[in-house]
Each structure stands twice: as C-alpha cells, then as structure tokens.
Amino acid sequence: MIFRPFLYFDTGCAAYVFGCGSVGRCAVVDPQERDIDAYASFARAKGMTISHVFDTHLHADHRSGGRALARQVGARYCLHRSAEVSFPFEPVEGGQSIELGNTIIDVVHTPGHTPESISLVVRDLRRGPAPWFVCTGDTLFVGAVGRPDLPGDTERNAAQLYGSLHEKLLSLPDAVEIYPGHFAGSACGAGLSGKPSSTLAFEKRWNPMLTADLAAFVQKACSAGLSQPADMGAILAFNRGRA
C-alpha cells in the first residue's frame, strides 16, 4: 500500500492519500481546498489515479477541497448518505466496502461529532485480511474525542459519540493504527495531542475519555467550553454547497 498523510500545523488538520500501487488506484480523505493540486500531484508521482474522495463529515473549521478535487481528477466524491448538502455526491453507508485493488476501505457510520460522520477502516490484502488502520475523522483523536456541540442537541450527540466509539471503533483489534482528522491546534476537540497518530491499544490505555462510563463521558464532552471555529457559518455554507 502507498500511504501519505498531509499535516497542516497552522490549523491542526490532517488529510490522507492512500491506495494500491499494483492497480494504481487511490483515495483521498478530508482534503483541504487550498491543497488539491498537491494530492493530485502525489498520486500522479506514484502512478495512481484518484478514484474516490471522502469527507468524513461536513467540516466546520475549514473549506473542503473534496468536490473540487473530485471534479479535477474525475473521482467520486463520497459522503455518508445522510449528509445534508445542496449538490450531488456518491452516498456511502456503514457496512459498505470499497475496493481499490489490494486496498479495501470499510465504511463505518460513527455519528456524534456530526450526524453524518464516518470512519474508514482500511485493509491491505497483500498484508492480510485484518484491518491495518482507520481514518477516524473527528470521532476519535489522539488523547481526545470529537466535540458534540457544533450541530446542537449536545447531550444526544455526546451519547451517540460514546456509542460510536465503544460499539464500533474500540471493537477493532488493539493493533489498529488511528489517523484522525485533527491534532493539537484544532478547535474541533479539547485536549488533542500534538502527536498526529496512535493505536487503539494506546488510546484505550491513555485517552481519558475512553475510560469514562456513559454518564461521565456525556458530562465531560458537554462541559468542554470550546469556542466555535472561526467563520464557522461561512465555512459550513460553502461545504454544504450553499455559498
């Protein structure tokens, strides 16, 4: 498998390009509008065609490059089927698998940060059938979890987030690597580590939000007291196709 993270230290954001070098097909996850040429250039340099572009959710902190990149390279732009947007997209849902040669992407619906949030569990069949890593979007970070307050109905979202974590992501093998959508410097969670990746085993041991029971988790998640991302309204309008 070919894999490359793109880390944006000014905003604490991350995007990912990965795929199968044997068949020359890859995916891009959570691309930034400002960097779409860099993703396309990297794919070309590795002899790969971008066939799928994913946003793990509708971002509130930065303008997505998903639609523009998909148009530029002729890829499918993928969001969870419940995403409320004003443009056509390729709907995906939990339990769906997408094949990129030896690279297999298993879609997991992980609501809580937003209703349409997904995580992408990735396998490399040349390595074996077991999951290798998961792109967790804004559901699970290193040392923290996504904030549940941005869509409103914070307590309900926090309870959903707890279920997404404990019933879906934490049921994966401990050795699975996690690659989140953010690290320290982002406004999308409280207490994010400056380390941009981890493993599920490490997070189970050291992430304080994962050792809390449901009531404590909801209380902590709802009392983080975070400010809204700058220009959130305009950014969401753009990402929903309404600006």
What is the secondary structure topology, with strand pairs?
Elements: E1 2-8, E2 13-20, E3 25-29, H1 36-45, E4 49-54, H2 66-73, E5 76-80, E6 90-92, E7 97-100, E8 103-109, E9 118-124, E10 131-137, E11 140-141, E12 144-145, H3 154-167, E13 177-180, E14 198-199, H4 200-206, H5 214-222, H6 232-239
Parallel strand pairs: 3-4, 4-5, 5-6, 10-13
Antiparallel strand pairs: 1-2, 2-3, 7-8, 8-9, 9-10, 11-12, 13-14
Give structural notes.
This protein is α/β, with parallel strands linked by helices and 243 residues long. The chain has a single domain, classed as Metallo-beta-lactamase, Chain A. It contains 6 helices and 14 strands. A hairpin with a 6-residue loop joins strand 9 and strand 10. Helix 1 packs across helix 2 (66-73) and helix 3 packs across helix 5 (214-222). The longest helix is centred in the middle third of the chain and has 14 residues, at 154-167. The relative contact order is 0.15. The mean pLDDT is 96.
